[in-house]
Amino acid sequence: MRWHLPTAVASAALLMLLLLSSASAQRPGQPLPSFELRDQHGELVTNDDLLGKRWMLNVWASWCPPCRAELPLLARAADETAEEDIGLLLLNAGETASVAVRFLEGEGLELRTLVDPDGGERGLESTNDTLRRLRAGGLPTTYFLDADGTLLATFVGELTPDALAERLSSVFGVVWTP
Predict the structure, then answer these.
(1) Cα 146 to Cα 143: distance, rounded to the nearest angstrom
(2) % of the chain exceeding 70 in pLDDT
(3) Which of 37, 40, 109, 121 qualifies as a cystine partner to 117, CB 3.0-4.6 A?
């Protein structure tokens, strides 16, 4: 059987959504499940690296239209709230570093993303392993974490400017104007 790109993308999207929705979502008040992943530059990142700062952790994929649409908004919000000690970290859903980097560079986005290494490094978990433990409800999903790694809120779906402003206000107490 020969796959066409739209069919392959649709199949991958369906598989990812089924994988992500196989369990109930991570609940506010729980600590972020532990993970050990590489970013697009090959640097190891774990939960401990997130301590001491509030975070927006965004689960995305380059083939996901709502993910692609919200990334510039998240980047702008993170840049404009950096002095409030809020960071943005992306968690790519199962794509290799080269795929994620090619997309981000093509969009002119300088964002740190956790990815699967191009060579499939032995001994490290895959991003899909982490996503299963997070119990993400779909793509995109944005987790709002406090400085000790506790999940404060989750937003499943594309964040609009108003929805992001409301979350930053209600979760972090930060006024941000889109």
Answers:
(1) 10
(2) 83
(3) 121
Residue 30 and residue 54: Cα distance in Å, rounded?
15
Would you kindly state where each structural domain of the chain is located, as residue ranges?
5-172
* DSSP helix/strand/coil, 80: helix
For residue 43, the 8-state DSSP code is -
Task: Name the architecture of domain 5-172.
Answer: 3-Layer(aba) Sandwich (3.40)
What are the pLDDT digits (tens) for 56-94? 999 999 999 999 999 999 999 999 999 999 999 999 998
Task: Kindly give the residue spans of alpha helices, DSSP state H, lying in the chain.
Answer: 5-20, 65-80, 97-106, 127-134, 161-172
pLDDT in tens, 12-41: 443 444 444 434 557 889 999 999 999 999
* CB environment 97-113: b (16+ within 10 A), e (fewer): bebbbebbeeeeeebeb
CA–CA gap between residue 158 and residue 155 (Å, rounded): 8
- Spell 128-156 as b/e; 16+ CB within 10 A means b: eebbbebbbbbbbbbbbbbeebebbebbb
